[in-house]
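Marked as duplicate of an earlier ticket. Keeping the data here for the record.
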Amino acid sequence: MRMKSGLIAALLLASLTAAAQDGVKPRPSPLAIVSSRYKDTYLKITYSQPHKHGRVIFGGLVPFGQVWRTGANEATELTVTRDVKINGMELKAGTYSFFTIPGRETWTVILNSDLGLWGSYNYNSKLDVLRFDVPATTVNEFVYEAFTILIDPRNANADLVLAWDRTKVIIPLQFPESTP
């Protein structure tokens, strides 16, 4: 009887485990990480990549003039190990939520101290660390099916590029020189 009960329990556990694994599906907007290092400064951006799937993106799925999580799922986060300059402004080492407000010609970039947010639903502007505007470029050719963040390094300078559909936004970044 004990052997039979043990076998039934093992089969039940195996079926529950299989059912739980079957219920786990990949996210439609997968996690992505982009990073760059210049000397002793490390920059990492963690975000989720929504896909176009034939939709109108900016001014449609992502409305103009509203705070956007700059990706999908959880709010995008930027981590830097040393102080850097972003768009000419000083950013202290740390981790920040990365929001944007897309516009037709200009985007507002926001780095915020509140972490672990889902989307931009609980965004609090009182916790903004940096806020600045950068131009948005509309290109004739299709850029990316998935929202993509790239870092284009050029020694102590880099461009942080946000690209999706037919839109590109370039944010200038400057790494500090190493300390001796």
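See parent ticket for discussion. The first helix runs from residue 2 to 23.
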